[in-house]
Design goal:
The structure holds two protein chains of two kinds.
Chain A (H helix, E strand, L loop, with lengths): L1 H32 L6 H19 L3 H22 L9 H23 L15 E3 L4 E3 H23 L1 H11 L1 H6 L4 H23 L9 H16 L4 H21 L7 H12 L10
Antiparallel strand pairs in A: 1-2
Helix pairs in contact in A: 1-5, 1-8, 1-9, 1-10, 2-3, 2-4, 2-8, 2-9, 3-8, 5-6, 9-10, 9-11
Chain B lengths: L2 H21 L2 H24 L7 H16 L5 H23 L4 H21 L16 E2 L3 E2 L3 H23 L2 H11 L1 H6 L4 H27 L9 H14 L6 H16 L5 H15 L4 H14 L5
Helix pairs in contact in B: 1-6, 2-6, 2-9, 2-10, 2-11, 3-4, 3-5, 3-9, 4-5, 4-9, 6-9, 7-9, 10-11, 10-12, 10-13
GO molecular function (chain B): branched-chain amino acid transmembrane transporter activity
Main location (chain B): membrane
InterPro entries (chain B): ABC_transp_permease, LivM-like
């Protein structure tokens, strides 16, 4: 009984860590570029695939994939920002959502064409195999590592954005890009780098997720829906809110899976409806 | 443009619609009509009210399942079953709309998407929906007790009549004082508020109307194709209706139908190519957003206006 409960809670924590990473990336991109990056799920999927392809075709080990896959996806993201997203600046942000939706279809279709529907397993790297018995539950080492690493990256992002000079530029850019430009900051470059960074963050989550889930072309599209709900629940205002809400939603899903499994995929959206009833701006959001 | 020309144009379209099943495969034509109605209903929100709903598949799909169930298990006549589905979609629209219109813009899109996902998961989980297989073997029945819908042309004209009714309703709504208020909200919401309009109520009414007509389209689709499937509640369907509207021209009366015709034809034509359909649909989407946001009918209209005003805007 307790074994199962803690097992589900821990699984929830892992999911929550990925939700937190992904909604954090969405928040960063939305904050500066005013773009809801629908392609975030596809970028997550591409990260996982990049790791899998690297291992299968080139023998790139997990440790390097953790670095190289986000870099590759980040570069693709920067190219997309330069060539496409830039043309939509100043228009209704809805066009950004639609554009990235179209890109998602292209990416998913291409991977589906190349690899079909069946998933691939990414082996857990040797140095993270095994687990520890904590008495009340069995803790697989890789999963503990996935949660720890994701949270560390989340906190690092939070620190950079809220506490450093670079973060101050970013925050200034979200308030008033024109003014920031007048101070001599290369704002267009900042936009490109931010989008690339957000895409890389999604890809990073994908690499960390690869040994936990199946690597499939559609793995991103199911996650991104929940992440959107997380964003609505948390409100897109704060970085900290994204992290806390992501983890909370993951844990809630875990709890529901323990008590009543069929409801676990629905509970997020029910919570979303309830939060909207009480606080339309989300738990941590400001009206804008 | 001279009014008489417009009237003749409409009459020609009406006749073309009547003659369609003699020219093309009736099931294809009915599919186009259903999705054209769906896109037109969606356009009431996006094109005339400025609300991007990213979860309209929920209304189409929920109604398709309800209609199918009423036909297959309760043995209701098709017109009653379709109306039942329509009513369910409208009720769903009222519930979701009341919550979603509390936020606007991007948030509105994400909230509607979230609710649609809720419906999707419910359809997957509920015991009577057939799960992955969908609801199959729906009988078409006899419309009004005497028209056998198993005859493809009779079925077509049944769908065509329902399409015209729904389309006319939307057309009336758009060109009524109600529609003008919706456009005022789209152009400048604070101004509409300061003029004393209860903006939330107008938005909600538009949402319910749009959801209801989407439900009509979904119910007809279930009757015509004789099944309701998960793809009707999936978010790809919600994206597809955005594409139809954008491609044809949002904020134009005919645009969504033109877009639906093109998208259905494209998918039909490319069906054998497997996942390339998705890739090409995505590419068309990107091209629409980046290069021609007015859509086909929007571009043509702009061209016609320019030629009638002698180049002046």
């Amino acid at each position: 009984m307790t074994q199962a409960l803690f097992g589900q809670l821990f699984l929830g924590l892992i999911n929550g860590a990925f939700y937190a990473l992904l909604s954090l990336g969405l928040a960063v991109i939305f904050g500066l570029l005013d773009v809801v990056n629908f392609a975030h799920g596809a970028q997550y999927m591409m990260g996982a695939f990049a790791a899998w392809m690297g291992l299968t075709y080139l023998g790139v080990p997990y440790g390097w994939a953790l670095l190289l896959a986000p870099l590759a996806v980040g570069l693709v993201g920067m190219a997309v920002e330069r060539t496409l997203l830039r043309r939509l600046q100043g228009l209704d942000p809805l066009y950004g959502l639609l554009l990235t939706f179209g890109l998602t279809l292209i990416a998913e279709g291409l991977f589906h064409h190349a690899y079909g529907n069946s998933g691939f397993a990414y082996p857990v790297p040797g140095w993270l195999r095994g687990g520890v018995n904590l008495g009340f539950m069995f803790l697989p080492l890789y999963r503990a590592w996935a949660v720890g690493l994701s949270l560390a990256v989340c906190l690092a992002c939070w620190f950079v954005i809220e506490r450093t000079k670079l973060g101050a530029y970013l925050r200034a850019g979200t308030e008033n890009p024109k003014l920031l430009q007048a101070f001599g900051v290369n704002v267009p470059l900042m936009f490109t780098l931010t989008y690339g960074f957000g895409a890389a963050l999604a890809a990073f989550a994908g690499v960390v997720a690869a040994p936990v889930y199946q690597v499939t072309p559609l793995m991103g599209s199911s996650v991104i829906m929940v992440v959107f709900a997380v964003v609505v629940i948390g409100g897109m205002g704060s970085i900290g809110g994204a992290i806390v809400t992501g983890l909370g939603v993951g844990l809630l899903e875990g709890l529901t899976r323990f008590w009543y499994p069929p409801a676990s995929s629905v509970v997020v959206f029910v919570v979303m409806a309830l939060v909207l009833l009480v606080r339309p701006a989300g738990l941590f959001g400001r009206e804008r | 443009m001279p009014g008489r020309l417009v009237t003749w144009g409409w009459l020609a379209l009406l006749a073309a619609g009547l003659a369609a099943p003699f020219v093309v495969y009736p099931v294809f034509a009915m599919n186009v009509l259903c999705l054209a109605l769906f896109a037109s209903a969606f356009n009431l929100l996006l094109g005339y009210t400025g609300l991007l709903s990213f979860g309209h598949a929920a209304f189409l799909g929920a109604s398709a399942y309800a209609t199918g169930w009423a036909l297959r298990s309760w043995g209701l006549p098709p017109e009653v079953a379709v109306l039942l589905g329509t009513a369910l979609a409208a009720a769903l629209g009222l519930a979701f709309g009341a919550l979603a219109i509390r936020r606007s813009g991007i948030y509105f899109a994400m909230i509607t998407l979230g609710f649609a996902q809720l419906v999707y998961f419910l359809v997957v989980q509920l015991p009577w929906t057939g799960g992955e297989d969908g609801l199959q073997g729906i009988p078409r029945g006899r419309a009004l007790g005497l028209l056998p819908l198993d005859d493809p042309r009779t079925a077509y004209w049944f769908v065509y009549a329902a399409f015209l009714a729904g389309f006319w309703l939307l057309h009336r709504a758009i060109h009524s004082p109600f529609g003008h208020v919706l456009r005022a909200i789209r152009e400048n919401e604070p101004r509409a508020v300061s003029l004393g309009y209860d903006v939330a109520r107008y938005k909600l009414l538009a949402f319910v109307l749009s959801a209801g007509v989407s439900g009509l389209a979904g119910g007809l689709k279930a009757v015509v194709l004789q099944f309701a499937s998960l793809s009707d509640v999936h978010w790809h369907r919600s994206g597809e209706v955005v594409l139809m509207t954008l491609l044809g021209g949002m904020g134009t009366v005919l645009g969504p139908s033109v877009g639906a015709l093109l998208v259905v034809a494209l998918e039909n034509y490319l069906a054998d190519t497997g996942s390339w359909v998705t890739v090409i649909t995505g590419a068309v989407f990107v091209a629409c957003v980046v290069a021609f946001r007015r859509g086909i009918v929007g571009e043509v209209r702009a061209l016609v206006r320019r030629s009638f005003t002698g180049g002046k805007p």
